Amino acid sequence: MAKDDKKKKKPSEDVVDLAARIGARQSSPNTTPPDVAPPQAPPPPPPTRLDGPIPSAPKPRLVPAKEDRLQGAMIQKALVEEDQKPEPAIPSPRAAPGPGEIDLVVTPLPTPDDWHRFELALRKVRGV
User: Fold this and answer.
1) HSE on the CB side for 55, CA within 13 Å?
2) Could you state, in order of their start, the residue ranges of all structural domains in the chain?
3) CB-based contacts of 101: which residues, under 8 Å, 6+ apart?
4) pLDDT profile of the chain (128 residues), mean per 10
5) HSE (side-chain half, CA atoms, 13 Å) at 68
6) CA separation for the pair 76, 69 (Å, rounded)
7) 49-80: pLDDT as tens digits
8) Rounded CA separation 71/77 (Å)
9) CB 97 within 8 A of CB 105
10) β-pair partners for 119
11) Cα–Cα nearest to 101, from 80, 119, 128, 120
12) Which of 7, 10, 47, 97 is the most buried if burial means most Cβ atoms within 10 Å?
């Protein structure tokens, strides 16, 4: 029963400083502030990384166009050309796809910003 006696031993009646146990500083009015060290030189800049993002060129700004005679004449010519009657379309000898053939459908996207983009679709036509 000697082992049980050691476990049941009464705790000591010493004063325990709980603030020191949880990491708080003890307040002591007699302590002097530490000497202030002179400021150190700033650390050298980090080396340039080669695996980072590539810097891009600045985007061009919109510069207002100069109103001159040549530009005004070009605008007037374009307005006149819009009013003219368009030429008739050239007739196409293309026929409907035959059995087992594939038709390519090209549809321009509706926004004016995407005038150069097209939606391509292959459509297989069933034969008769």
Assistant:
1) 5
2) 100-128
3) 125
4) 62 70 63 70 84 80 68 77 73 75 71 65 62
5) 5
6) 11
7) 778 777 788 887 776 666 666 777 777 777 77
8) 10
9) no
10) 107
11) 128
12) 97
